[in-house]
Amino acid sequence: MNKPEQDVLLRTERFVQQCLVRDSSGHDWWHIHRVRQITLSLAAQEGADSYVCELAALLHDVADEKLNDSKESGLNKVRSWLEQNQIVPDQIDHVMEIISTLSYNGGSNPPMRTLEGRVVQDADRLDALGAIGIARTFAYAGYKGHPMHDPDTAPSALIDASNYRTAKNGTAVHHFYEKLFKIKDTMNTTYGKELALERHEYMEQFLNQFYKEWEGE
Ligand code: ADP
Ligand code: NI
Fold first, then answer.
1. Model confidence, pTM
2. First to last CA, the chain
3. pLDDT in tens, 180-204
4. How far is the CA of 217 from the centre of ligand 2 (A)?
């Protein structure tokens, strides 16, 4: 990576820190830090353009609706940032495409068009899994005022993916069935899948232990 690219990454890092400084809903700077780190490992494994991947990883949550008046105004903010920093138009378009199509959306988005997009999407999904994923889930539930668990509605009514919506009552434990346990089957890259499976199994073990302790075993 050349010096101008390194400078852009450093400036972008500071820009993102400023944008996310107020957030406590799971889109804090350290989420970006982790996604960036996983992105770099995946990009190396997959032979993706690591500069585009790293820029997209850094910027992927800046346009989030929760932090902006609308998705569109968030995306405009990111585009003007990239334009101010003399990034070549092709790279700007590529980064914009990645961050505007990356989010989970109930798992129903069309596949990412480019390898770089698939890498950054995998990295973002991996940060919802494993030990960090568990911690984020309980932190989010606390932030929303949801209970961590309600044994009267979970888990048997929820295990079937077809009925989780009707059974939904907003507990941290529900979120594992609503989203987290589905993520491993949506991964794009070989290495991403491997990591997702490891983190998936870790979450299963966690819930097994959680249910046992709940019953005083
Ligand atoms: P992202 O698209 O980056 O996953 P979200 O805002 O959907 O962002 O979620 C932020 C974090 O909070 C993630 O770790 C996610 O799994 C978790 N989360 C999202 N919705 C819920 C929920 N209803 N209950 C518990 N955790 C949640
Ligand atoms: Ni994210």
1. 0.90
2. 54
3. 999 999 999 999 999 999 999 999 9
4. 36
